[in-house]
Every structure is written in C-alpha cells, then in structure tokens.
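testing teh design pipeline on a random one, pls ignore if ur not involved
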C-alpha cells in the first residue's frame, strides 16, 4: 500500500544532497549474501526492522548512529526488501509520561524520520501503539521468555541506577523495579519478531537486546515450529557521538546542560554557539587521541561523519591549525548538513494532515504484515 502524496509534494522528504530518494532498485548484496549463506535459515528476502523512542526531535548522535544509516539502507535495498521503522511509544511508558508531552514528542519524532529522508513510498513508518499485534505477541513470548535471562539484562539496572551485578534478590531492586521495565526486552523482541525481521540495525550497546530476541525466537521455534527467522544484527559502523560538554559520556538528552548536544532542528546560531563552547583542552594543535584528548577527538569524529573521511586524515589536515579553527569548521559543516533537515521538518510539522495520513498508511501496512505472523502463531499454538 502506497500513500498518494501528490498534494503534499513540498513535504515529501528528499535524501541529503538534493538528489531525492531512490526506490529500492539497487542490490543490498552484502546483507543478502550473508543471509542466504546461513546454514540455519532458509533463504528469503530481507526484512529490516528498527525503532526509536519518542523523546521529541533526535540529537546528532541519534542521527549519525541510527537515522542516517536507516536512510542509507532504504536507498541501497534491493527490490523486494521490506523496511519497517517505528516510533516505539509503548517503550516510553516504562517511565511515567505527561500525556500532552508524549503526544507532542511522538509527532516530533515521526516528522523527523521523514525529514531525514525516510520515504513512506519505500519504507513502512508507523507508531508502535497503532499495531496491537506487538503487545499480543509480547504476551505470547512472555510464556517462553527466561526470567533468569531477563534478570541478567542491563536495561532495568541502568534505568534504576543499580550496579551491573544487581540481582532480583536485592531488596532495593525489588522495591524499585516495575514489571514493564523488567519485561522491556520481551516487548522489544515482539517488535522485531512480529514483522519476521531478518535483520535489525542496532548500536553496539543494543546487541544484548537482540541476543535476547534471538534466544526467545529459538525457544519459541523449538516448542511450536519454525515460525520466526532468527534476526541478525546490523551493527552501525558509526562511532558514538559524545557530549560536547562531557566528551567521555555519550551525547544524550538527559544531560542537564542543553549545550552538551546538537538537536537536529537547532538554528545555525545555536549550532555555532554550542560548538564554540564545546569542551576541549589547552594543548596546542589538533591530534586524534580519544583517550588523552576526548573533546578534540569527538569534534574530529563528528567532522569525519559529515565529510566521509577518516579521523586520522582530518587530524593530519588540521594538525597545525588552532582548536578555534577546527570548531568553526565543524560548526559550519553542521549548519550546512542540518539545514535541509530543519527546513523539511518545519514544513512537515506545519502540515499535520499529511503527517497523520502517513502514520495511518504506515499503521495499516504494519498491521497487515503483523497479522500474517499472528495467523501462523495462532495455528501453531492452537488458538
């Protein structure tokens, strides 16, 4: 199903660089070869799934680490590949949310996915909560998911600020832990498996969650038959983008200082100001040394993402220049790179009718795909 967007041509996202999004005509050859060469899975067309939580407009780290690779996958996917990208709003409920704020954040996140270049003609883009099969499958997977495995996951421990070796025997953990947070990985597994995903683009820090999904899929298949493909991780090659004010920590919206992060819709003035005050050091010259000079190295890595070159090459080019000159160049590259995204985002947010129509179309497509899976599951389980 494809949405007719002829009346909203100005809001249709284009890929960065102004060339427009290409349909899935080119081969996703490395991915397809890896999948077809597996001894454990039947050959099939790839199905890619990934999601992002609704926390409003994403920051630069989200974009370079996840969203930009999603757009590249869309552009390079061969004909027949299915791509599903979701605003996983149910996951956001593990922390109490103010309704009006969450509603606003959902729309902002959805508009951003379109603004960065995801095309509803090529990818299914939807809100998780619009597809009830996600939570239906979560319950079914809960009947085979391992409590012991879940207790070893780091997600609930980090959210509660508990040590990695904390266990359910800890009275502090039991007092603070809620079932939704503890079973978060089961819903995450359902998100992936309901769409029969063969590949999941994730950051290195999410590998544990995908391993749980693979384990749970294997457990279900062992009991009820080969319903689920075992999803493979597509690890983003992008290095983490670190905080501008605390370069030993990952860029995050939870940091108290707003100048620690670049938001994709920041104005040119805001971008220049934030980069200008980014924490570096007092050493002269520019060198790439993430351990000894994390602040300078973070700026180099950001520039490497934007210019498509290595950090070592950038360090050589800027070796004899000042940190001020490096910051100015990083700021100007960010202003140039994000200007189209900001412009498209503003246009999309001004056309709520178009946004809602894309979300509705995506939900219908995602529901139809999920019901294929649920029919197989119900038949296998006797429901």
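output:
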């Amino acid at each position: 199903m494809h949405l007719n967007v002829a009346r909203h041509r100005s809001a249709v996202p284009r890929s960065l660089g102004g060339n427009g999004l290409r349909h899935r005509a080119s081969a996703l050859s490395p991915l397809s070869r890896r999948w077809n060469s597996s001894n454990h899975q039947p050959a099939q067309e790839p199905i890619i799934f990934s999601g992002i939580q609704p926390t409003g407009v994403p920051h630069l780290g989200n974009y370079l680490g996840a969203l930009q690779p999603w757009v590249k996958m869309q552009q390079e996917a061969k004909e027949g590949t299915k791509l599903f990208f979701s605003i996983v709003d149910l996951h956001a409920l593990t922390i109490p949310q103010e309704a009006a704020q969450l509603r606003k954040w959902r729309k902002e996140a959805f508009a951003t996915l379109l603004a960065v270049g995801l095309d509803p003609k090529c990818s299914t883009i939807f809100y998780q909560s619009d597809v009830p099969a996600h939570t239906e499958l979560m319950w079914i997977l809960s009947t085979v998911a391992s409590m012991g495995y879940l207790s070893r996951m780091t997600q609930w421990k980090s959210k509660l600020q508990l040590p990695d070796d904390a266990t359910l025997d800890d009275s502090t953990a039991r007092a603070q832990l809620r079932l939704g947070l503890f079973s978060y990985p089961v819903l995450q597994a359902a998100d992936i498996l309901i769409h029969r995903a063969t590949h999941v683009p994730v950051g290195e820090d999410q590998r544990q969650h995908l391993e749980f999904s693979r384990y749970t899929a294997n457990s279900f298949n062992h009991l009820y038959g080969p319903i689920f493909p075992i999803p493979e991780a597509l690890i983003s090659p992008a290095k983490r983008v670190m905080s501008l004010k605390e370069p030993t920590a990952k860029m995050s919206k939870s940091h108290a200082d707003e100048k620690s992060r670049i938001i994709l819709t920041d104005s040119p003035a805001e971008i220049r100001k934030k980069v200008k005050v980014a924490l570096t050091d007092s050493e002269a010259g520019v060198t790439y040394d993430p351990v000894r000079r994390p602040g300078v190295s973070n700026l180099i890595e950001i520039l490497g993402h934007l210019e498509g070159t290595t950090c070592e090459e950038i360090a050589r080019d800027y070796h004899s220049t000042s940190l001020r000159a490096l910051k100015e160049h990083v700021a100007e590259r960010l202003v140039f790179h994000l200007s189209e995204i900001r412009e498209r985002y503003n246009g999309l947010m001004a056309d709520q009718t178009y946004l809602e129509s894309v979300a509705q179309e995506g939900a219908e497509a995602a529901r139809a795909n999920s019901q294929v899976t649920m029919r197989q599951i119900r038949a296998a389980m006797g429901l």
